[in-house]
Amino acid sequence: MAKKFSFTFFIFILSIFTLTIIPSAGFGADANNKEIAIDYVTKIQNEISADLSKLRTAIETELADIKLLSSDIQQRLAELNILTEKSSDDMAAWGYTDEQRELRTQVLSQLTVAYAAYDSLYQTSLSNSKETQEIDAASLKNVESPDINYSDELRKEINKTSSNLDVQVFYLQTKTNKLRLELAEAIEMQKKLKAAQEGGEALELPRTYILRVELAKLNVALTRLQVQAQRKNFDTNVATIQRLRRRLADIQGKLIFPQELLDKNLEKIQTRLNDLTKELNDARKALDSAHASLVRSRAALGSADVNVLTNASSAHYMARNARVNYWEYMIALLDDEIEINLEFQQTWRERFKLFNDKASGEEIWKIRESSQARINDLTTQLEGVRTLENTLLLQADSIQAHAETEGIASTVQQSIIQAANNYRKIVSDICNRYEALIPDAIFLQQRLYNEANDNISALRLAEKVSSFSKDTIMGFLDTELWQGEGYSVTVSKLIIAIFVFLSSFFLSSWGSNWIKRRMLRREKVSITAANGVQRIVFYILWVAFALIALNIVKIPLTAFAFMGGAFAVGIGFGMQNIFNNLISGFIVIFSRPFKVNDIVDVMGIQGTVDDIGSRSTTIKTWDGFDVVMPNRYFLENSVTNWTKSDLKKREILKVGVAYGSDTRRVEKILLEVARDHSQVLKNPAPFVIFKDFGDSSLDFEVYYWIELRTSSGMKVSSDMRHHIAAVFEREGINIPFPQRDIHIINDESKPVEIKEDTQEDTKNA
Fold it and tell me: Which residues pair with 737 in a beta bridge?
């Protein structure tokens, strides 16, 4: 029975998926499919009811001796109160041990709580039943001239109700399994009690055991009531979805989308954009203020380590830094929200054109492709927001835990708690706002995609060939191109051969990719080796399918005999580089000097290996360009693989200061700047070298390491230069530049002599 019940719930989950997906279908979706889905959900409901009814007989048998009316429950609660009050005296008279006393007291308490919970849930279920009837009777308002906004409201309500069903399915499954376990336990305890009453094995504490049997049965009754209540909620949601979908189907032929409605929607979005712009300006002012506060906090910190939170200045700096992070995230949110609202305006304009048949075929295809791409981008962005939310909550909990460490002063503790609260505020004010904004954007883009898809299905190929008659086309297709002994090649045969040949290309690609996925998933081979096998299998399948294509259209290989000589000459002269690169590609794939995602330097080109093909390898440079390099270059030239052994890279930052500066102080400042940067690795630790006495400056070099996958050397060095310039200005340390002074000696008796002297300018630069 358990296996069948699990299978039923699996089918039930599939039905929920059907309910969620089908409401988002386009206007032109098949109405019969919708009705089939509704009937299917009804069937699943009946199967669940049948499964639950199998437990009914056993449950009613076990609950036959328990009175569960509200008046009976109140009477039993009064009896339990009396038992509890005199329990101490009774247990003393019975000679109970401390452990036995504790057990009986616990059982009495649990019984009282269970009866109270059952009565409360029973009364609530009666109240909810009346409310549900009132809601069903009210239904939704009728609209004489439904517009596209009303249609969107119906679809949003369907999606919202459908999402609730997922939670209800899980809850029903959990509670039903619990009901089975509790029922089995109650039956077993009842058997044991009955056996003892009939003279069997005596019970250790018969009075307490009778109460435990009553508690077990009451738990069965309570869980059954919970399952029934949840089942009612589920049925209500299913009925709501069916009603909404019927309403949606009824209004499809009556929908309107006039220019006035478009203007109204655009005006509403524009008002929102104005509010967002004002909010963005305020946020930028707040960020400037937070930055200023952070700079003052950093100055007050001095040379102290910002990571030592037992120090009041360090804790205060952390709180200010968290505040700066809050406003940075807020500005990013407002920028995204403004961009999305601008997209809303464009989306509504495109929906208006699609609805009123004002879009050309090319525009419809373009709208469809762009909306699909935008849906993917928004989905990825939403996943990133949820990941950020989890990270921030973990960070806040970690900081909060540090604040609760013993021995921390109250002022320090307050600053640490403030920092934790600032990170939680990012989640509540920003992440939650994203999670409300992005789904709305996805919904609107999905509607645009579906409506464009419906318009595409209405396009007819006849629009492109209307100027040709059927006879003309057929005559062209039957035109003979060439013939030989026992065969002839016509245009139609050639077209079919080309079509089958191209299909073979996709079939070969699918087959080789399937083998590649299987190797990666089951054989656990590297991605580079799997790519090599995939290429070999692809060419084998391609040749095989090409021969099959020629056989299907009855074109013998002799028809292409004249191409053999040209092909051989091409290989000997013009195609030798191609075959050279092919062989080099397989050598690279199997010798593995580098693999996909490695960072390499080849002939001065630096970047990440994006793909290793059979003829060429693609490298994505730091500038975002894809450089396609023939594979033979990797065998004929030296290749520097920066990530073959690890992902760390050493960077050097050169800094010059004026003569007369405190070199030890400069070294300490540079080291602090390197250590404080979030993307500079702690191990290996950064260090500073006093490199040389330069012509115009004292030259220092900062050596530090970064993680290549997550950091950009140019960005890190730029951030550090900004920080160094600010700290040097605050500390009065000058960065000199060369100056040339020209001295002219004016002596009439001697020719004019010009002397050049180069010296540094440390004060008047």
Answer: 761
Peptide bond into 738 cis (omega under 30): no
What is the CA 268 to chain-centroid distance, rounded?
A: 30
Task: Give residue for tokens 């160094």.
Answer: 724
Per the DSSP assignment, residues forming a β-bridge with 601 are 606, 640
- Domains in the chain and their CATH numbers? 2-254 (no CATH), 259-459 (no CATH), 475-560 (no CATH), 579-641 (2.30.30.60), 648-741 (3.30.70.100)
What is the rounded CA–CA span in Å between residue 106 and residue 100? Answer: 10
Angle at 630 between CA 624 and CA 631, to 5 degrees: 110
Q: Provide the token pair at 473.
A: 């086309």
The top-scoring range by mean pLDDT among 91-100, 597-606, 638-647 is 91-100
SS (H, E, C) 572-590: HCCCHHHHHHHHHHHHHHH
- Kindly provide the residue ranges of all beta strands, DSSP E only, lying in 320-404, ordered along the sequence: none
- Distance between CA 413 and CA 419 in Å, rounded? 10
For every residue of 87-111, which 3-state class applies, written as one string?
A: HHHHHHHHCCCHHHHHHHHHHHHHH
Count Cβ atoms within 10 A of the Cβ of residue 232 and give its class: 0-12 exposed, 13-18 middle, 19 or more buried: middle
Sequence-separated (6 or more) residues with CB below 8 Å from residue 471: none
Contact between residue 382 and residue 438 where contact means Cβ atoms under 8 Å apart: yes
List all residues 6 or more positions away from 182 whose beta carbon is below 8 Å from its beta carbon: 216, 219, 220, 223
Which residues, 6+ apart, have CB-to-CB distance to 13 below 8 Å? Answer: 169
Helix (H, G, I), strand (E, B) or coil at 3: helix
CB 182 within 8 A of CB 224: no
Q: Residue 271 burial by CB count (10 A; 0-12/13-18/19+): exposed, middle or buried?
A: exposed
Tell the residue number behind the tokens 């040749």, with chain if given: 543
Q: Are 700 and 660 in contact (CB under 8 A)?
A: no
Q: Read off the pTM.
A: 0.49
Q: How far apart are CA 174 and CA 168, in angstroms?
A: 10
pLDDT band at 568 (very low <50, low <70, confident <90, very high): low
As beta bridge partners, residue 488 has 483
Indicate the range of 310-319, 351-360, 455-464, 730-739 predicted with least confidence. Answer: 455-464
What does the alpha-carbon distance between residue 544 and residue 537 come to, in Å, rounded to a whole number?
A: 11
**Residues 219, 186: Cα–Cα separation, whole Å:** 9
Per-residue CA distances from 276 to 35, 281, 335, 716 (Å): 43, 9, 9, 32
DSSP code per residue over 446-512:
HHHHHHHHHHHHH--THHHHTTS-HHHHHHHHT-EEEEETTEEEEHHHHHHHHHHHHHHHHHHHHHH
Neighbours of 104 (CB within 10 A): 21
Token pair recorded at residue 229: 């209540």
Residue appearing with tokens 């401390």: 98
Quick check: 40 pLDDT over 60? no
d(CA 418, CA 425): 10
d(CA 107, CA 487): 94
**CA 18 to CA 32: how far, in whole Å?**
14
Averaged pLDDT for residues 111-137: 70
- Which two three-digit tokens encode residue 267? 């005006």
Whose CA is closest to 83, among 103, 100, 67, 105? Answer: 105
